[in-house]
Write a structure and sequence with these properties.
Distance between the termini: 29 Å
CATH architecture: Orthogonal Bundle
Largest sheet: 3 strands, antiparallel
Number of strands: 3
Structural class: alpha+beta
CATH superfamily: Winged helix-like DNA-binding domain superfamily/Winged helix DNA-binding domain
Radius of gyration: 14 Å
CATH class: Mainly Alpha
Strand content: 5-15%
CATH topology: Arc Repressor Mutant, subunit A
Helix content: 40-55%
Number of domains: 1
Strand order of the largest sheet: 1-3-2
């Protein structure tokens, strides 16, 4: 999957934690099913990582209907430094991997706009 998984996984304790954090840096927020689908990972593994990161004070969550959406905790003093490291990691990914995992359409196309 992501070529630098070994390094990022070593830094963050696991490949799944690294992927979840990279996803949140790329999109700003996300929920378990969406992240799991992006990386073709078990949803339970992603949700476990999200809960651990929330318990550590890096993420906050809010419920939108039946979906629990996670985003960075703006009160955490560690988040800015962590996000800088993740931005560097994202910038150094090969273009093919950035396209595959971090360029998903997040909103509907404007009506009438040509494909």
């Amino acid at each position: 999957m992501i070529r630098d998984d070994a390094m990022m996984g070593a830094i963050f304790g696991s490949d799944s934690a690294a992927r979840v954090l990279l996803y949140l840096e790329a999109y700003g927020e996300g929920y378990g099913r969406e992240i799991a689908r992006t990386f073709e990972m078990p949803q339970s593994l992603v949700q476990r990582q999200l809960r651990k990161l929330e318990a550590a004070g890096l993420l906050v969550a809010r419920d939108r209907g039946r979906i629990r959406i996670y985003q960075w905790d703006p009160r955490s003093r560690l988040v800015p430094a962590l996000r800088e490291l993740l931005r560097t990691g994202l910038q150094n990914l090969p273009e093919r991997e950035r396209e595959a995992y971090f360029r998903q359409r997040r909103r509907p196309r404007r009506s009438g706009k040509p494909l």
